[in-house]
């Protein structure tokens, strides 16, 4: 590629004001804005904008010569306002129940417009990030070429809403709210088969290995995450598609110019694949560009962060494009 030297070598955290003076921070990876197709990556509940590079949480998917090749694409990832990644306590959000994924999607679109981006090659995200990808599509059905929601669905189910309530109660009532909520959440993100295969009911120094693993994850998140951030992110899950009816979904299927590629996980307890299949069948009746894939894994919801080979295989045909 003749202009590969234009790849962005450092990815500083940048910020702009959107909405009612909300600070929206973001990072750009790969080609500079306005020089290549744009891919927006939406992070999940405990994620952030650092998706690529040495410490990038999706570096197996995004980077030079990876499936989302930063030599060919401009990759933009916004931090959900209040996620704490900017380290500014003053940017925490206390009125978290006033926010929704629709509001976040609108802020992301405003942010994109302010940095000169009006059309997207793709928007992709897993779990909460995938829900926001759906919402971005609903807001601008003709502005995205590919919508790729992974391990999520267009609308929160009763099962998801119920678990959000349990998490919210823990976060508001526990002595160690982040730690204890994380223990519960990790059991939702994995499966009985996954944990049994990993730990084999083994015990060491008075604790079962599964107990040590859960306590480790609780401690780890407690060290790096703000309570206000966890409350907000957890709440956002139940707002996915809250204003979208089935008729709205079908109207979107007719109106959108995007190729929608749903990616589910066959063992997901959080966003169950049966619901994704139902959504796919409804959309497919009205739009022949709707695509559907399932990751085969014992690991449940977290498989979108584990089964990189399968995910890369599914995504490769989408991101194998010729650029000048």
UniProtKB/TrEMBL annotation:
Domain AB hydrolase-1 residues, every copy: 37-169
Keyword annotations of the record: Hydrolase, Transferase
Alphabetical GO biological process terms: homoserine metabolic process; methionine biosynthetic process
Keyword flag RNA-binding: no
Pfam family membership, one: Abhydrolase_1
Membrane-spanning intervals of the chain: none
Superkingdom of the source species: Bacteria
A GO term, aspect molecular function: hydrolase activity
Protein name, as recorded: Alpha/beta fold hydrolase
Species lineage: Bacteria, Pseudomonadati, Bacteroidota, Flavobacteriia, Flavobacteriales
């Amino acid at each position: 590629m003749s202009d590969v030297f234009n790849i962005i070598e450092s990815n500083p955290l940048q910020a702009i004001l959107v909405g009612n003076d909300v600070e929206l921070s973001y990072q750009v990876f790969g080609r500079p804005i306005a020089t290549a197709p744009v891919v927006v990556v939406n992070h999940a509940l405990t994620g952030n904008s650092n998706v690529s590079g040495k410490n990038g949480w999706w570096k197996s998917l995004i980077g030079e010569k990876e499936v989302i090749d930063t030599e060919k694409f401009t990759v933009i990832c916004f931090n959900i306002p209040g996620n704490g990644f900017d380290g500014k306590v003053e940017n925490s959000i206390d009125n978290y129940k006033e926010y929704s994924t629709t509001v976040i999607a609108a802020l992301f679109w405003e942010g994109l417009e302010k940095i000169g981006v009006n059309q997207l090659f793709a928007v992709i995200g897993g779990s909460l990030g995938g829900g926001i990808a759906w919402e971005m599509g609903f807001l601008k059905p003709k502005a995205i070429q590919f919508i790729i929601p992974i391990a999520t669905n267009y609308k929160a189910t009763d099962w998801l809403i119920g678990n959000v309530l349990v998490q919210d109660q823990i976060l508001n009532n526990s002595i160690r709210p982040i730690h204890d909520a994380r223990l519960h959440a990790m059991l939702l993100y994995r499966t009985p088969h996954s944990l049994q295969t990993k730990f084999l009911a083994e015990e060491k120094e008075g604790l079962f290995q599964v107990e040590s693993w859960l306590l480790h994850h609780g401690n780890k998140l407690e060290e790096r995450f703000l309570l206000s951030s966890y409350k907000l992110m957890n709440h956002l899950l139940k707002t996915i598609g809250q204003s979208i009816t089935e008729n709205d979904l079908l109207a979107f299927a007719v109106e959108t110019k995007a190729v929608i590629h749903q990616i589910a996980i066959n063992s997901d307890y959080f966003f169950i694949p049966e619901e994704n299949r139902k959504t796919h069948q409804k959309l497919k009746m009205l739009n022949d560009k709707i695509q559907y894939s399932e990751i085969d894994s014992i690991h449940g919801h977290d498989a979108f962060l584990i089964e990189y080979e399968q995910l890369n295989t599914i995504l490769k045909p989408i991101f194998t494009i010729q650029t000048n």
